[in-house]
Amino acid sequence: MEPSPSPRRPFTASIFLLGATTALTAVMIETANAQTSVSTSSSSATVSAQAVNFDIPAGKLSSALVAFSTQAHVPLSSQTPTLAGKMSSGLRGQFTPSAALSHILSGSGLSYRVVGNNAFQVVPASNATNITLGPVRVGGTITQQDPTGPGVGYVATNTMSGTKTDTPITEIPNSIYVVTKQLMQDQQPQNVQQALRYTPGVYAETYGTGGNGSAYGAQSGITQRGFNSTQFVDGLMTYSASAGETAFLERIEAVNGPASVMYGQVNPGGMIAMDLKKPTETPLHQVSLGFGNWGRYEATFDVSDKITKSGDVRYRVAGIGVTQGTQTNYLDYHRVGIMPSITWDIDRKTSLTLLGMYMYTPGDGVSEGYPLTGTLLSNGYPKISRSLFIGIPGLNKNSQKDAMFEYQFKHEFNKYVNFSQVYRWEQSYYDVKSSYYSYAPSDSEVEVGPWVRQQQNTTSALDTRIFGKIDTGPLKHTWVVGSDFRTFNMPEYLAYDFGSTDIINIYNPHSSYGNMEYCFDYKNPNCTVNVSNRKNNWFQEGVYFQDQIKWKNLSILIGGRQDWVNYNYSRVRYSTAGNIVTNGAPQPQSAFTWRAGIIYKFDFGLSPYFSYSTSFVPQIGSTDYLGNAFAPLTGKQLEAGLKYKIPGRDVLLTASAFRINEDHYLIDDLVHTGYSTDGGRVRSQGFEVSANANISRDLRVVASYSYTDMRFAKTNQTAQRFDPYTGSNYGGAVSESGMSVPYVPRNMFSVFADYTLPRNIMRGFGLNWGMRYVGSTYIDNVESFKTPAYILFDVGAHYDFGESSPILKGLKAQLAISNLTNKYYVTACGTTECYLGQGRRVYGNLTYNW
């Protein structure tokens, strides 16, 4: 059944689609007529076409400029009266001369311009000719100074995700943390959850090696400030687990706090924003071979180059193939994927990028939970082995196919008005044949039964916006007005065989794995089966505006958004007891969200800020026992903080304190089984501090501490406390009001550092080390019991063979070990099961860049 949106919703989307088509057509015609008149400065091309290997230490700017001129073999002069007192953070790697000089001058208040055919002149920033730098190559890594690029080292200074405009992080009045490409390369995460391990306010592995936590996944197990996270790719919400493939990502950002004003349906804890790899202006050629424990073998490639001689048409192709076992028996992970893309710079004001992706994951390597006894508790029994497979061998298929198409179009009409549009279509197909465990007959046994699922998710999403800059007297405005919409369709087939079960001895599973015969034919009277065919459809549209107002060093941000959502569903249940047909009535919901913030940037780099923001998430697909739809989840946040960017240094320090209230969260209706009820209000409050620093050319550090106190603030719900030793409730009913929300660690701390040894000690060799602490969490709503805190250590090493021999230039070896001590730990527990964390993981690779 298709959604039935109100007339004004498709009208708004149509207006923006019509505008996009008209703009694109006009630009193409204009370009065709003016193509021959567009030219590129020969001098600019001469000084910036060839990448050069730089090795410039941090120190005085004057010394850095002398070293730059010598190593680049480019004449350099200065128009500035003095360079005294100015510092540079240095430079190391392969850069084009123009990009290298831009980096050296970063934070100094100076810029440069091209003089003649092959020379540079340092000038005050206000006198510089506008120069747009594309991506540059740094030691084989693509590094581009733009808000969707990989950042430099461990520091990214600009972002698009916070405001949908290119804005310095130090001018945005809320918390944004960037996982740069360099950080991912040093840590070698194999999915998004692992990449977020060192991010403030984010608990990324709630479900350990289960819940899409082992092999991939952007949807499960990630929380921000205690709330479930929402994932976006290139600014559009995604439902595809392939979004967690780090081989295709340029960077990952955690926007902590409500982001509904710009993105719509986002929980108040925040969102995870990911940017896909796109064609680079500087050629990139990279291949790698990897290996690891549990029989992991991996091959990747990443190639980008010009198609036309002028470079106005460029391509990029990234691919991955991987196979491995896991720490759990009978569960394997296999994946092949490819992502081609092409960018056409139609003219100097217009560009079009097309991306495609296909991913096949015949085994996802995801495990299920384990019983409390043997994990959280002993009860006289030894610990359950992480290799234990609780299920039916041969009934452990969990495969997925993902396809995606995306385009990004940009056009600058003039210095006041710009146009941007991003569209993505994606489809995921899941085929699951697995087993579940229903209860434990004893502390050493579990009962399992078979189930199957086929599901297909199809999403179309479009974001269209007009933005620009304008001055009104002393005020400088960066404004944006836009609309986005999304359609989602999910047919699902689900079947449980309740008549076929096995009893598995968790300490001697091989003796109890049987050849179970299962039946999913609901027409067979000898089967006890429940089959469900379900269809879910929803349509969402939002219209938003935002203005960033700047007066001298003071910035004010204000924005608002109106959302409309319509949801339909139908379900047919077949069973041996009879058939049930359910057709849900449309559930339209709407909400207005807004935010406002203020931030002041002192000349010495400190930026204090304060902000207020709201969020909206429709609660579709659920009703109370009377059939009434629930009110949307609504959140409100107050946040205050400090950001400090040390002038002339790649060091960004942040601190923030927040308080979030969310109303209308749902809990199970204990009186009417199978239904939900309004739980009241949840409150999350705490603070975060973090540091991202390229301390020198050889030393990079990230560190953070998060304190999150999340409680049921306003509720009339009660529950009995649970005794995990006996597996039963005890005592009288206890009010949930004021109790901690389960699965949310109150304290988290992490630090990670990478150091390349001095050349006179060992040329090209580097080490890294990290520590992660996650505090205890409660198992239920009335603080019955805690899972213990745990601390993990990660180490790694890397060696650049090119430092020892020019013949081996571009070849690099790397080793990354997570959970060095192989600590056995529990990430979270409920009243019936626990999730185990990943044991020691060893991964190494050889990478070649040319």
UniProtKB/TrEMBL annotation:
<dbReference type="InterPro" id="IPR039426">
    <property type="entry name" value="TonB-dep_rcpt-like"/>
</dbReference>
<keyword id="KW-0410">Iron transport</keyword>
<keyword id="KW-0812">Transmembrane</keyword>
<dbReference type="Pfam" id="PF07660">
    <property type="entry name" value="STN"/>
</dbReference>
<keyword id="KW-0732">Signal</keyword>
<dbReference type="GO" id="GO:0015891">
    <property type="term" value="P:siderophore transport"/>
</dbReference>
<dbReference type="InterPro" id="IPR012910">
    <property type="entry name" value="Plug_dom"/>
</dbReference>
<dbReference type="GO" id="GO:0015344">
    <property type="term" value="F:siderophore uptake transmembrane transporter activity"/>
</dbReference>
<dbReference type="GO" id="GO:0038023">
    <property type="term" value="F:signaling receptor activity"/>
</dbReference>
<keyword id="KW-0675">Receptor</keyword>
<keyword id="KW-0813">Transport</keyword>
<keyword id="KW-1134">Transmembrane beta strand</keyword>
<keyword id="KW-0998">Cell outer membrane</keyword>
<dbReference type="Pfam" id="PF07715">
    <property type="entry name" value="Plug"/>
</dbReference>
<keyword id="KW-0472">Membrane</keyword>
<dbReference type="InterPro" id="IPR036942">
    <property type="entry name" value="Beta-barrel_TonB_sf"/>
</dbReference>
<feature type="signal peptide">
    <location>
        <begin position="1"/>
        <end position="25"/>
    </location>
</feature>
<keyword id="KW-0406">Ion transport</keyword>
<dbReference type="InterPro" id="IPR037066">
    <property type="entry name" value="Plug_dom_sf"/>
</dbReference>
<protein>
    <submittedName>
        <fullName>TonB-dependent siderophore receptor</fullName>
    </submittedName>
</protein>
<dbReference type="Pfam" id="PF00593">
    <property type="entry name" value="TonB_dep_Rec_b-barrel"/>
</dbReference>
<comment type="similarity">
    <text>Belongs to the TonB-dependent receptor family.</text>
</comment>
<dbReference type="InterPro" id="IPR010105">
    <property type="entry name" value="TonB_sidphr_rcpt"/>
</dbReference>
<feature type="domain" description="Secretin/TonB short N-terminal">
    <location>
        <begin position="64"/>
        <end position="125"/>
    </location>
</feature>
<dbReference type="InterPro" id="IPR011662">
    <property type="entry name" value="Secretin/TonB_short_N"/>
</dbReference>
<dbReference type="InterPro" id="IPR000531">
    <property type="entry name" value="Beta-barrel_TonB"/>
</dbReference>
<dbReference type="GO" id="GO:0009279">
    <property type="term" value="C:cell outer membrane"/>
</dbReference>
<keyword id="KW-0408">Iron</keyword>
<keyword id="KW-0798">TonB box</keyword>
